[in-house]
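Our consortium's second objective concerns turning raw sequence data into structural hypotheses that experimental partners can test. To show how far this objective has progressed, the report includes one record in full. It was chosen at random from the queue rather than selected for favorable results. The single chain below, 215 residues long, was entered without modification.
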Amino acid sequence: MLCLKCGNEMKENEQICSKCGYNKDSIQSTDNPFGIKNQGIYNPNSINREEAEEKLEHEKEFNELAEIYMRPMYYNFKKGKFSWCAFFLGALYIAYRKMIAVSILVYIINLVILFIFKDSFILYATVSLIFNIFLGISFKKIYYDDSMEKVGQIRKNNEDKGFNQLTEIVKIKGGTNILYPIIFIIITIILLTVLYYVFGFRMPKVKLPFRVPSL
C-alpha cells in the first residue's frame, strides 16, 4: 500500500511509514493528516489526500486484476515458495501457466542436457535434478513478476476501458491452458521418434556398478 502522507510504498505489515513516520491508523483520528507533524517528523512535500486515495484505489484495482490473472493461486505465487509442480513437470507446467517463451527455453535446456549426457544416465539424472530444483525454487517468483508486468501492460494498453472490461481481458490473457502442455507432449513424442529412427539416437544408458549375471 501507499503512505497517505508522502506516497511512499509501505509493506502490508508496516504500521508506520519508514520515509516520513506517518502512522497509517492516524487517519481515523484526524481529518487533515497531510503536511502536519506526525510521530515527531514533518514532511514539507506531503501529497494531498485525494491524490493519495486515488493511488490507493489504483493499487487496489491493480492487485485485483493480478489476482484474477493468476487465479486461483495469487497469494501462493506472491509468497514465492518452492513450486513442486515446476520441479516435477518442468516445461509442461510452465506451458500450462501460459509462459510459452519460458517453457520453450526450459524445453530446449532439457534437450541439451539429454544430448550432452546421453552416454551416462547417472550424470543425466544428476544434472536434470539440479536444474529441476532450480526451477522449483525460482518459478513462483518468475511467474509472479511476469504476471504483474503483463497486467500492468494490459492496463496501459487499455486505458480507455473500465474495470469490468479489464477483468474480462485479464481472464483471457491469464489463468491456465491445458492445451499447451498437451502440444509439448505430442512434439516430444514426434521428436524422439524422429531422432530414434532417423538418427539412431538412444536414451541415456544406465551403467550399474556391478555386473548382472546372465541367465
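The partners drew two points from this record. The CA atoms of residues 47 and 67 lie 29 Å apart. Residues 27-42 have pLDDT under 50 and may be disordered. Both points have been shared with the crystallography group to help prioritize constructs.
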